Amino acid sequence: MLNKLKNLLVEEMDVNPELITLEAELMNDLGFNSLELADLVVLCEEKFNIVFDESVLPTLLTVGDVVAYLEENA
Question: How far apart are CA 2 and CA 22, in angstroms?
Answer without folding.
Answer: 8
